[in-house]
């Protein structure tokens, strides 16, 4: 009976039309409020945050989802990093994705997935070789992110290995990559 009622409610619920686009300076306050609400203030203590602090996101890779009225209801950003060094001793350029968040009033409508696909598509279009992130494998595996790609890499701080995932945009990009993730993006003025 409960399942039937849920279906009826879902049928009559107002549908959300949303668009994905580039974040603008006018979106920053709404994005920060959304992140505080979705992840709490402890989000600033994460190891990933050390990599992002004082840096600008990778060129063209700060995206937001907007509702029909233009309000920010989702956010994702990607950051330039070096994912350790390759076997020949050169730094392995890559991206770190995060945070990803969707306003919980709009959860389960495909907005997170749309943000992920737009981010990965744009990263590939811009010629990047791989995207790494720290997050729930149960969510990110559907987008092709797996922990085996990061097995010789470490974050600069505490992290759970099972949540340290990567997607290669170019085949074999992370093959042999080993060492610590370091920020390599443009610094904030
Ligand atoms: C994770 C998040 C971005 C998903 O956004 P969303 O717009 O609700 O996602 P989608 O509608 O595209 O996908 C929903 C599906 O993902 C699943 N899902 C959501 N979070 C999940 C998680 N942490 N682990 C596994 N599955 C998850 C839902 O159960 C749903 O599954 P279904 O399609 O089988 O019903 C959103 O829940 C959020 O902002 N969470 C708080 C911040 C956060 O945890 N960010 C990610 C860090 S791991």
Sheet/helix structural class? alpha+beta
Classified in CATH, the superfamily is: Gcn5-related N-acetyltransferase (GNAT)
Helix content: 25-40%
Large-scale geometry? globular
CATH architecture classification: 3-Layer(aba) Sandwich
Organism: Pseudorhizobium pelagicum
InterPro entries: Acyl_CoA_acyltransferase, GNAT_dom
Domain N-acetyltransferase: 18-170
Protein name: Acetyltransferase
Keywords:
189 residues, alpha+beta, Aminopeptidase, eight-stranded mixed beta sheet, 5 helices, globular, binds coenzyme A
Q: What do these coordinates show?
A:
With 189 residues, the chain is α+β, with helices and mostly antiparallel strands. It contains five helices and eight strands. It has helices at residues 2-12, 28-39, 47-52, 111-125, 137-140; strands at 19-22, 62-66, 72-85, 91-102, 130-134, 153-154, 164-168, 178-183. It is globular and about 50 Å long. The longest helix has 15 residues, at 111-125. Strands 1, 2, 3, 4, 5, 6, 7 and 8 form an eight-stranded mixed β-sheet that branches. Bound molecules: coenzyme A. Coenzyme A binds at residues 38-39, 100-102, 107-113, 135-136, 138-139. InterPro entries: Acyl_CoA_acyltransferase, GNAT_dom. Residues 18-170 form the N-acetyltransferase domain.
Give a topology summary.
Layout: H1 2-12, E1 19-22, H2 28-39, H3 47-52, E2 62-66, E3 72-85, E4 91-102, H4 111-125, E5 130-134, H5 137-140, E6 153-154, E7 164-168, E8 178-183
Parallel strand pairs: 4-5, 6-8
Antiparallel strand pairs: 1-2, 2-3, 3-4, 3-8, 5-7
Coenzyme A (COA) is lined by residues 38-39, 100-102, 107-113, 135-136, 138-139.
């Amino acid at each position: 009976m409960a399942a039937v009622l849920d279906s009826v409610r879902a049928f009559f619920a107002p549908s959300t039309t949303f668009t994905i686009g580039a974040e603008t300076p006018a979106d920053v306050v709404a994005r920060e409020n959304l992140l505080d609400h979705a992840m709490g203030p402890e989000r600033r203590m994460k190891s990933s945050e050390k990599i992002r602090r004082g840096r600008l996101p990778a060129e063209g890779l700060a995206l937001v989802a907007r509702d029909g009225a233009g309000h920010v209801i989702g956010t994702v950003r990607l950051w330039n990093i070096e994912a350790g060094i390759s076997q020949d001793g050169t730094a392995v350029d890559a991206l770190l994705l995060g945070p990803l968040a969707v306003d919980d009033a709009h959860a389960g409508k495909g907005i997170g997935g749309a943000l992920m696909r737009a981010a990965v598509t744009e990263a590939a279009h811009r010629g990047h070789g791989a995207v790494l992130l720290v997050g729930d494998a149960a969510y990110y595996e559907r987008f092709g992110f797996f922990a085996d790609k990061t097995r010789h890499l470490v974050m600069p701080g505490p992290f759970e290995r099972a949540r340290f995932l990567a997607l290669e945009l170019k085949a074999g990009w992370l093959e042999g990559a080993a060492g610590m993730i370091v920020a390599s993006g443009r610094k904030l003025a």
